[in-house]
Structure formats: C-alpha cells, structure tokens
Amino acid sequence: MNAEVTKITSRRAQPNAEHPDFLSPAERRARGKELRDSVSRRSQGEWKWPKNRRDPIDILIESNLGRQEQLIPIRFGRMMQSPFAFYRGSAAVMAADLASSPVSGIRVQACGDAHLSNFGGFATPERRVIFDINDFDETLPGPWEWDIKRLTASFVLAGRHIDLSETDSVRAVIAAVRSYRERMADYAQMRVLEVWYDTIDVARFLKEMESEETRERVQSRLKKVREKNTPEFLFPKFVEHKGSTPTIADDPPLIFHPTADIAPGIESGYREGFANYRESLPEHVRTLFDRYQFCDLAMKVVGVGSVGTQCAIALFMASDDDPIFLQIKEANASVLEPYVGKSLHASHGERVVVGQRLMQSASDLFLGWGKGASQRDYYVRQLRDMKMSAIVEDFSAADLRSYARVCGWALARAHARSGDAAMIAGYMGSSEAFDDAVCEYSVEYADQAERDYKVFVRAVREGRIKATIEG
Where are the domains of the chain? Predict the structure, then answer.
C-alpha cells in the first residue's frame, strides 16, 4: 500500500489547510480498487491455520482473567450448548485467527464481535424502534473485513444449528455479504450527513422479509415488546418490598446481591460510581437523571461471552410508581487490542460508549460510563428498552436469508459512518468476486469453529475446565 493511500485510510477529519483538495467519491473508489493489487479479493477467501496457532482453550482461560470465578462455569456451560453458542462466546479465539488474515488496510470503528445475535431492535430516545448492532464490548478501530467475516461465519453456524441444508446456510452468507457490498456502494454516493441520518426502522426492516407470515410474526412480537419491556412492566417482575423500600428480588445464581468483596461501593450506596457515571452524561440528561433516587443494585448474569464479568442492574425511583432500571456492565480490554493497538480512551467504558455512538444510528438516552470503587471500568444503559433479539431457532431458511440481508445492511451503515465508504466499495467492486471469497472463508472458518468446539467439549470432559449446565 502506498503512503498516500495509507494516509487517506488512517486519518481522521483534518483542517482544510492541510488537505486543500478533496477527493471525489469516484477518486476514492479508484484508490480502493488499487488496493486489490496488493491484497486481492480472492485472498479474502483463504482460511489458513496460522503458524504457532494458540490452543483455543488457553485463549478462553486467559479471557477469564478478572471474571468472578463462581460464574465462569456458567459461561462455559452456556458455550457447551452447541458450536453456535461456543462461537458466540469465543470472540477472542477468532480475533487471534483474524489477525493473520489478509486486510486491505482500510480501518473503521469495528464492532469486534459482530455475530448475528449481536444485532437487534431497540428504542431510540424518541421511542422509535430501529434495527442495528447492539453489542459493543469489543469495539475498537480496526479492519472492516474482520467484522464482515465474524458476521458471515455466524450465519453458517446458525444454519447448521437449526438443521438447514448447507446450501441454505451458504445462501444466507451470500445475502449478508452482498447486502453489505451493495449498501456500501450506496453510502459511498451519499452526502456525509445523509449517511449519519440513515436508520433502519421497522418499516424498512419488514420490507426485507420475504414472507407475509414472517412480517406478521415480527409485528406481533414487536407489540408484545412494546408492552413488556418497559419500567412499569419490569418493576413487579424484578422487585420485592421489604418494608417501605423496594429492592431487587434475588434469583440466584443469575440475580443476586453482591458482597463487599465483589462490589466495594456497597457501603456508600455506590455514590462514587454513580457520581462518576453522571459526569459522563450530557448536561440535559444529567437533569433527567437527577430526578431519580438510587434504591438498590444486584448482580445479573447476562449473555454468553459476558458471563463472569461484573454485570448489574440498578433500580432508581422518581416516585412510588415511577421506576427506571439501568444495566451496568464491566468493560475490559477489547479482544482486538493485542492486534490493532490499545484504545485512545483512558477508560474502557468510554471506549465502548464512544464506539457505540460512532456505529449506531441512535443510542440509549442514559448511555454513559464510569469507574467504581473497585476501580473497574464500566458502562451504563437502560435495561431492556424495547430490545428485540433474533430467536434463531424459530428461523426458516428464508428468515435466515432475510435477516442476513438486514444485518449486512446495518454493518455497512455502521462502517460507513467512521470509515471511507467509497474506498471500501472500490475495493469490493460491483462483481460477486468479494462475495464468493468471503463465503468460502465463512464455511471454512465455521468448520474450524466446530473443530474448536470439539476440543472445548473434550477439555470439559477431561476436567481441564469446568462447565455448569443450567437447568
């Protein structure tokens, strides 16, 4: 890659005096096409076992550093469920493998863990439901190719998980990467503000569904989500009264009140941590937040890859019948960090929040970050604010294909916000060459993930690691 292209692909916005001549979309697209001379599109289809590839079990054990030891078996138990579940929980393994794969040199704000279950619907501050990426624990600036490969390989594994034919799984992969390529070409021609204003709302999401039955099912589920994923609905579900003070009800081992060892701020009512979080909020949101009084906090086990990190829910009340739940998640170093460099942000909580705001078309009103008495970094958002996730087990082949198209679209929009859409589009081109290469990689890497899963299961059975299967 020549020095001029490197400068274009790595720089952030600079004053006009330094860059007086703007390149047109066509010129930037041509620069992207030139990158194929050094990194061909065909090379993107190669999955090669890296020299001295690390044992995936060693990587997983290393990723447990700092996690709550009693919850680690639950994490591994959830990963035991299937190769797809293992894939969801092993982002660190794939990050190490991707680090040896060919890249064009164009960087974006990468999700870092863009598998299909990390996309979904949620409410904007204006109460519109949109579809977007919804997990940013691993976000860092990095190669755009890594996200698309993480996404497409997940469709192969998901298709196998629900017993679709290999042909149907491959069609979903092709749908995802083609959608990414074609949408990126569209974003390359749009004005910058048009890209940032673009959202995938319910109407646009439904338009991508192939059957009327699926559209009706999505609308029915959305109606239930609107009714149930609200503070008023969650309050009686999660809360019990001990005297006049509402507290979060324990449901061990998934919801429990922490000890002082786990949460040193317990004695002060977490005043330091919440004051720290408050300072990260815009001034107008601080005014809103100040209307609420802290009532209680409990640890909550969530997800697959996050199990063992400190995750909590906090109850705040503005009055007797005016609650809000905030979700607090520990933020550790991204799995991408060893391969793309450390974050520029002092706090990993800030890294997550900034990355989320860069990639999402709209983010939660209460999204912020802080540091607790334990000196752990964390970020905060509302709990279940009309959130909808894919239920893969209910998918037909057509559903998986439709969902793949929307995920590819959402990922392209996210990358276009922080990266050079025209250069990425120029590199991919208008033919199916890039699609075919990524499809080949996805099938081969899904095979690798299944082999790693077998190694993982054997490690559990031999007692090398411990897994707890939940009832």
Answer: 3-110+137-221+391-461, 228-382
